[in-house]
Specification:
This protein is of the alpha+beta class and about 210 residues long. It has helices at about 1-25, 35-45, 50-65, 65-90, 105-120, 150-160, 180-190; strands at about 90-95, 100, 135-140, 165-170, 170-175, 195-200, 205-210. It is built from 7 helices and 7 strands.
């Protein structure tokens, strides 16, 4: 009895899948074809009893995301390729069942990357440029010591990219919104004690941002 019941349920599932597949196939334009991948995704993501219109919309939605899917697959392949490379170089150790861990060599390499990142100066293109909705004027004042000259020139290049104007070499003004990422990088680069940012509100008061 149990075997018969299992067979019956299997046939029912097959029947439902057949119905959905045929529903999609008969909904495409004459002479057109549909990919197996698109059909599969449309079928498995549609509830039982879905109308032909619903299935056609699912196919259309999946078709629109084809480029995103291809890009994702490309990123996935690149990711696995990098994992393989790190294993080959001795930075990672396979732990079975698709798991891995860092080797002592890998941990040392990570520390070097962390140190390099801590002193890295982001490109001006890293920060998004957007006007302050209130249109309030910002004033950036800095007094970065000569030993940090490289960081000082970096900050000036960032302010230029944000469309700030130089009043003096260490005093800049502009209405562009100061990106949160920039404030975080100023702290990360240990410049917070050398930089002050003020904002002039509509009431004319001067408020310190940093």
């Amino acid at each position: 009895m149990k075997e018969k019941m299992n067979v019956k349920r299997t046939r029912k599932r097959k029947g439902e899948l057949t119905h959905k597949i045929l529903e999609i196939a008969t909904g495409v334009a004459a002479g057109a074809t549909i990919g197996v991948a698109e059909a599969f995704l449309a079928v498995v993501t549609s509830p039982y009893g879905s109308s032909r219109g619903y299935l056609e919309r699912r196919v259309s939605q999946i078709d629109k995301t084809r480029e995103e899917w291809i890009a994702w697959q490309s990123e996935k392949a690149r990711f696995y390729k990098l994992i393989h490379k790190l294993r080959k170089e001795g930075f990672l150790l396979s732990k079975g069942r698709g798991q891995f861990a860092a080797t002592p060599k890998g941990k040392m390499h990570w520390l070097k990357l962390q140190h390099r990142r801590a002193s890295a100066l982001p490109s001006p293109s890293t920060y998004s440029i957007s006007q302050d909705e209130q249109g309030e004027l910002k004033i950036v004042i800095f007094d970065i010591p000569e030993k940090e000259k490289r960081k000082r020139e970096w900050l000036r290049s960032i302010l230029r990219a944000l469309h700030f104007s130089m009043l003096q070499k260490s005093v800049w003004t502009g209405k562009t919104k100061i990106p949160e990422e920039l404030l975080e990088d100023i702290k990360r680069l240990h410049l917070i004690s050398y930089v002050e940012i003020f904002e002039i509100t509509r009431t004319g008061s001067l408020e310190k941002v940093v």
